[in-house]
């Protein structure tokens, strides 16, 4: 039970697999208004959405310990109500409903009764948008916008390949590309995955369970202006084999996903081998999502106008956050996994 100085929070006790390290701490230190530094606000979460990065960084062992302190509260994305604001905060005030991200290295996570966030990662939630649903927007949609918008010309009809179109990022990648006027080819799995990719607007969908994606792309004879890879190791040779389907100098943006030794080797090798010696014609771009109120406001405007859909795979109660993480980690998720805030606040 929480008190005036403690609260409930889902915390990683140490680096390692989430199954053994993620635990509900009923007496985690409770942040107070007096602890806020310039640019920070105190938030009472309404809901949080989960991202693979929430547990992947945690499972990096010594690297995780070097970049984070433990115990560490889990979660980045959230919607919530501002309880108080720190010095020099003028864009938000107590009582505002906000959506955004907390910095996973500088502040407590979103899976807690209270958390602290920088205003740079937050915006007010427009009226008419469900705050629980909105919690599914920040990191996934920001990743989609920031991996596509800088590399295409809006309205030109650029050809974009989205590898992994129905996960927590892919659901937004397809929609953002279409909103920017691109022609979209997407990869998805048999059944609901293919159906969802089409619902989201993909012009062409490749069923990766029924089709050899690389062989299909080579045989199709079409050159893409941009490839966004949300998968990483499926297929592991998507970049190294892209000589025939990614235009000269065009970006292959690695947005995240699973990595194996083989896929890492293929990426690095393909990136350094000269084109004249059989290397790829495109260029490898690695990516990490950046906080941007401007980008969040653009995405929320599309949402408010009915142009952008937040696909929710499943919603869990706060007490079941660990089950929610295990569901996400198991794979096959279609859309966002959301955890509601603790009712005991």
Query: What does the radius of gyration come to?
Result: 20 Å
Largest sheet: 7 strands, mixed
SSE succession: EHEEHHEEEEEHHEHEHEHEEHEHEHE
Our count of helices gives: 11
Net shape: globular
Q: What is the CATH third-level topology name of the largest domain?
A: Quinone Oxidoreductase, Chain A, domain 1
Q: Quickly give the CATH architecture of the largest domain.
A: Alpha-Beta Complex
Distance between the termini: 10 Å
Number of beta-strand segments: 16
Number of domains: 2
- Provide the structure class: alpha/beta
Q: What amount of the residues lies in strands?
A: 15-25%
Low-confidence stretches: none
How helix-rich are the residues, as a percent range?
Answer: 25-40%
Describe the structure in your own words.
The chain has 345 residues and is of the alpha/beta class. It folds into two domains: 6-137 and 311-340, Quinone Oxidoreductase, Chain A, domain 1; 140-286, 3-Layer(aba) Sandwich (Rossmann fold), CATH 3.40.50. The protein is 26% helix and 25% strand. It contains eleven helices and 16 strands. Strands 3, 5, 6, 7, 8, 15 and 16 form a seven-stranded mixed beta sheet that branches. A six-stranded parallel beta sheet has the order 11-10-9-12-13-14. Strand 10, helix 7 and strand 11 (204-207) form a beta-alpha-beta unit. The protein is globular. The mean pLDDT is 92.
